[in-house]
């Protein structure tokens, strides 16, 4: 078993792995910069991480139709930039594809 596949199985064993992965990918790496810059306490970070995981789990539990309805959450995002495929995100996407191919 290759390192990446072992890494996958360890992550999967963490419980609620999909929700935790989604929260980490979207929230944790972004908020880590604010944690340092604004001196957010470790206790507050834990609370925010838990809230992010709960929200990610809820989203992942939605049906396809409910996910369609979920876009209403974007109502207050009027001045947000559209998504872009950065080099970092493209590299992660390539990694996930490679790992998925390995797991087949």
How is this structure best described in words?
The chain is an all-alpha fold and 104 residues long. It has a domain at 18-73. Helix content is 72%, strand content 0%. It is built from five helices and no strands. Helix 2 (17-37) packs antiparallel against helix 3. It is globular. The two termini are 13 Å apart.
Mean pLDDT metric: 92
Describe the largest sheet.
none
**What form results from the Cα inertia axes?**
globular
| Helix and strand element order | HHHHH
Radius of gyration: 16 Å
Portion of residues within helices: over 70%
Q: List the total number of helices.
A: 5
Unreliable stretches covering 5 or more consecutive residues: none
In terms of DSSP E residues, the strand content is under 5%
Q: How many runs of DSSP E, i.e. beta strands?
A: 0
Protein structure class? mainly alpha
Distance between the termini: 13 Å
Descriptive key words:
72% helix, mainly alpha, single chain
Short description:
The protein has helices at residues 3-12, 17-37, 42-61, 64-70, 87-103. It is mostly helical and 104 residues long.
Topology record:
Blueprint: H1 3-12, H2 17-37, H3 42-61, H4 64-70, H5 87-103
Helix pairs in contact: 2-3
């Amino acid at each position: 078993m290759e390192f990446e596949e072992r890494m996958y199985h360890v992550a999967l064993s963490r419980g609620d792995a999909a929700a935790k992965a989604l929260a980490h990918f979207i929230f944790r790496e972004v908020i880590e910069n604010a944690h340092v810059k604004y001196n957010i306490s470790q206790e507050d970070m834990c609370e925010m991480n838990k809230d992010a995981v709960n929200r990610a789990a809820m989203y992942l539990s939605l049906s396809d139709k409910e996910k369609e309805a979920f876009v209403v959450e974007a109502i207050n995002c009027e001045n947000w930039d559209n998504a872009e495929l950065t080099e970092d995100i493209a590299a992660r996407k390539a990694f996930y594809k490679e790992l998925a191919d390995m797991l087949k």
